[in-house]
Each structure stands twice: as C-alpha cells, then as structure tokens.
Specification:
The radius of gyration is 18 Å and the shape is globular. It has 2 domains: 184 residues, Rossmann fold (3-Layer(aba) Sandwich), CATH 3.40.50; 46 residues, no CATH class. It has 9 helices and 11 strands. The strands form 3 sheets. The chain has a 7-stranded mixed sheet with strand order 1-11-10-9-4-7-8. Strands 2-3 form a two-stranded antiparallel ribbon. Helix 3 runs parallel beside helix 5 and helix 4 packs parallel to helix 9. With 240 residues, it is an alpha/beta fold.
C-alpha cells in the first residue's frame, strides 16, 4: 500500500493506489510538472538496516530522545565533554556500519533510477567513515555520496542543496527518499516537492511538521512503483 501522507491528518487515497505527487506550503498546493532528475536517498533506516538501537545510543551519549540530532545536542557541550561523548557515538556508528545489512529493494531502486537516467545521491547524517564502510562492504552505484563531513546535516536544507548543485539539478526536479522528519524538514526547506518516507518510526512520525505533504510507503519496492507513477503523471501532463 502506498499513500499520500500529511502530518497531523489522515492519509488520502489515490488512483492506482498511489498518490499523485503534491506538497503543501502553507495554503498553496504545488503540482509536480517537472520530471524527476535526481533522487536523494538517506542511509540509516532507508537503504541500510543497522543492528544498533538508537534509543540506547542516546542514553549512552546522554542526550534525550527528541527531534534534534545527537550531533546537534553535543555541539553545545564543553570541548572535552563533547569529545568524550562523540567517541561513544562513533563506536555505535562503527558497529552499525560493520554489522548492518542492505535493505531489501535497495539494488532494485538504484537500478531503476540508472535505467531511467535519474541521478542518485546518498545523503546521510552519518560519518564519512560509516558511509565508506557500508559502501566497501556493499558497492552501490550512487552518483554522489554526501556525509556530515561534506555538508551541513539534515534538517539544514544545504544537506540537499549542495549535492543537487554538484549534480546540476534544481530542487524542483529532485525527490527525497528517507525515513524521518529530518528528511522531510530538509526537503521542505530546500524546495524539493517530492518526499517519500519509508515506514517512518513512531518517534520520527510525532516530529513530522503539521500539515506537511509527503508520500508514505512500506518498503523500497513501493518507492519504485511510486516513482513510476509520478513519471507517468508527468508524461500524461506533458502530452495533454
């Protein structure tokens, strides 16, 4: 089942069982009339399944379970304490990269994008070392990889805008595939109209901005189906 999500409201149905792509900005509705040329894809929880319990990580690092990133919480600490807690975070991140596995449907999604000439970028708040470990274990054909060492972290819009600049794709011709409020918030701020959230967890769902439009799917196979549907909608609009 694929649906159009709207934070704080019930999901709507759509033809073909898939929502026609729309995003809300205040009271304005923005129709997708531009073909998607790049898809920005999150790592942890989206294309990478980690054995790490992130609630436990937050307890170990000493930060609350809220909508802010762990790194954001640590930024305000005295240098020595920040370094100590960052080391704990890095150990958990390494464990997740070394012990995790590729999410079912990841290779099919990337192959789908490549076959259609759509750029793919891995955009993660995780470290460069973690991303390198994941891609060394499972080489995946991303056109670009961006980590927290490369750009500001999500929800900062620059997390998406800089990779798009490097790809030569405007925000309105991009889509985001992720699993949390951080992906949605960064996409909204960057002006990216298509956001697909894959089975967002409860803790992320409660942080979704009220009234924000997004597509919700159960897995990456449904992402492929949704992108196909959106592509057909654009083709149909262009020929009418």
């Amino acid at each position: 089942m694929v649906g159009r999500g709207r934070a704080g409201r019930n999901r709507g149905s759509s033809r073909f069982g898939i929502a026609v792509g729309i995003a809300e900005a205040g009271s304005d509705t923005i129709l997708h009339d531009m073909r998607i040329r790049a898809v920005l894809i999150d790592m942890d929880g989206t294309i990478w399944e980690s054995p790490v319990d992130w609630s436990e990580v937050r307890r170990a690092v000493g930060v609350p379970r809220d909508s802010r990133t762990i790194i954001d919480h640590l930024e305000g600490l005295p240098p020595a304490e920040r370094t100590e807690r960052q080391a704990i975070l890095h150990r958990f991140e390494a464990e997740g990269a070394e012990g995790g596995w590729i999410t079912d449907g990841t290779r099919e999604l990337l192959a789908h994008l490549r076959e259609r000439g759509i750029h793919s970028a891995l955009v993660t708040n995780n470290s460069a070392r973690s991303a390198e470990t994941v891609l060394a274990r499972h080489p995946l054909p991303f056109d670009l990889v961006a980590t927290r060492e490369d750009n500001p972290m999500k929800p900062d819009p620059a997390a998406f805008l800089e990779p798009l600049r490097r790809l030569g794709v405007p925000p309105e011709a991009a889509a985001v595939v992720g699993d949390s409020h951080l992906d949605l918030l960064a996409a909204i701020a960057a002006g990216i109209p298509t956001v697909i959230l894959v089975a967002p967890k409860v803790w992320a769902r409660v942080a979704l901005p009220e009234g924000a439009g997004f597509h919700e799917v159960r897995d990456l196979h449904e992402v492929v189906a949704l992108l196909d549907c959106l592509g057909r909608d654009v083709d149909s609009t262009a020929t009418t």
